[in-house]
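Lab meeting tomorrow. Look over both lines:
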Amino acid sequence: MTPPSPVTDVLIYPDGGAWRIIFAPTWSDPPILTGLMGDQREVFPVLRPDFDALDRYMWEQDAPYHKELMEDGGAALFAKGRGGQMLALWVAELVAAGAAVRAATCLPS
């Protein structure tokens, strides 16, 4: 039996002066993020995402994904297979960058 294809399904949106990521139940939890997610399957605060840079990154990785932009500047992102793996890495980097900023400025997580 082959393992299931990785699925990345997240909602990223502004919340006050920061950004929040919510992971859908279909998200294949990568170990790097499971310790950072709260009980509600979310990470807050994170840095403002650069969705144009995400487009370039996914194109360069030949990793298909779906992005639905929202009026508030946020986005719903979905990918599976190779796209799911690459999108998960991008999300992990976004979360790690936010954690580094919080640590450097002594902000609570």
Observations:
- Strands lie at 7-15, 18-23, 42-46, 66-69, 75-80.
- The longest strand covers residues 7-15.
- The chain has one domain: 15-99.
